[in-house]
Design goal:
Layout: E1 2-3, H1 7-18, E2 24-26, H2 53-66, E3 70-72, E4 76-80, E5 86-90, E6 95-98, E7 101-103, E8 107-109, H3 115-119, E9 125-126, H4 129-132, E10 140-144, H5 148-158, E11 163-167, H6 177-184, E12 189-192, E13 195-203, E14 206-214, E15 219-223, E16 226-229, E17 233-235, E18 266-268, H7 280-301
Parallel strand pairs: 1-2, 1-7, 2-3, 7-18, 9-16, 10-11, 10-16, 11-12
Antiparallel strand pairs: 4-5, 5-6, 8-17, 13-14, 14-15
Helix pairs in contact: 1-2, 1-7, 5-6
């Protein structure tokens, strides 16, 4: 069984199907995964002009179906990984057993919770500078956050954008000293201290600015073209964390370069076990590894 319908899950289904493992895949609440929240994917190999995320994910899904994967709509709501065969329950009440399980449930970007964030998501609001930064060459962007991730995103964007504003709630950065020094040495990054975003502003074309409030009560608007969230991701691993080992942030821990978890026969792929890269291509690669690891495990257990 494969849980999750993003690049990791679909790739795992392709490999598992071709290996005649009869995989059943449940797509979850967001078929296609977090990738579908962006507009154009320009860094996936093989698409020199870029590709829209839905056709890309539909192609992966169709490829898995072609090789015989049993792909089902539904959300896994309960799991018992105490013994093989593993037992899972789906939201429609179905209960299934699996000799091997691949967890590919992804990670969800943390947002501020503003309605305007949702309104402009994919139209100027992004949680991935590596994915979407190219669209803001010579433009003005803002990055929310004060940790290492925010500093990394800001310095990456500074190499593309004309101006980068960092919106920081406190009067200091939480980032490591090395990252703070890198930001300070980048001339087109300006830090707005003691500030919080009140609203994302825009029109039918997308984001045009933000309304910001300082801790002293001052409220002002800032004209920007892109708004990047860098306040962390939440791995969707709660359902399985009673059984498999997770790190301090909740990501599933895998064994070295493999996809093996702390439970024999359970494998993890994609962003649910990757706090570092979080790219479609790395998720797809880890889905491949998980299917190959599962195949080897099942052959050894015959």
């Amino acid at each position: 069984m494969i849980v999750g319908g993003g690049p990791a899950g679909y790739t795992a289904a392709i490999y598992a199907s071709r290996a005649a493992l009869s995989p059943v895949l449940y797509e979850g609440m967001e078929p296609g995964g977090q990738l579908t929240t962006t507009t154009v994917v320009e860094n996936y190999p093989g698409f020199p002009e870029g590709v829209e995320p839905l056709p890309l994910m539909d192609g992966m899904r169709a490829q898995a179906l072609r090789f015989g994967a049993d792909i089902r709509r539904g959300v896994v709501v309960k799991a018992d990984l105490s013994a093989r065969p593993f037992k899972v329950t789906v939201d429609n009440g179905d209960e299934l057993e699996a000799d091997a399980l691949i967890i590919a449930t992804g990670a969800t970007a943390r947002y501020l919770g503003l309605p305007s964030e949702l309104a402009y998501r994919g139209r100027g609001v992004s949680a991935c500078a590596t994915c979407d930064g190219f669209f803001y060459r010579k433009k003005v962007v803002a990055v929310v956050g004060g940790g290492d991730t925010a500093c990394e995103e800001a310095t990456y964007l500074a190499g593309l954008a004309r101006q980068v504003y960092m919106i920081v709630r406190r009067d200091v950065l939480r980032a490591s000293k090395a990252m703070q020094e890198r930001v300070a040495a980048t001339p087109n990054i300006e830090i707005l201290w003691n500030c919080q975003t009140q609203e994302v502003l825009g029109d039918e074309e997308g984001v045009t600015g933000i309304r910001v409030a300082r801790k002293d009560g001052e409220v002002f608007e800032l004209a920007i073209d892109g708004f990047f969230l860098a306040i962390g991701h939440h791995p969707n691993a709660e359902l399985f964390s009673p059984w498999v080992e997770t790190d301090a942030e909740g990501y599933i821990v895998t064994d070295g370069k493999t996809s093996r978890t702390s439970v024999e026969g359970v494998f993890a792929a994609g962003d649910v076990q990757d706090p570092r890269y979080r790219q479609a291509i790395t998720a797809a690669a880890s889905g491949c590894r998980a299917a190959l690891d599962a195949e080897k495990f099942l052959l050894e257990k015959q």
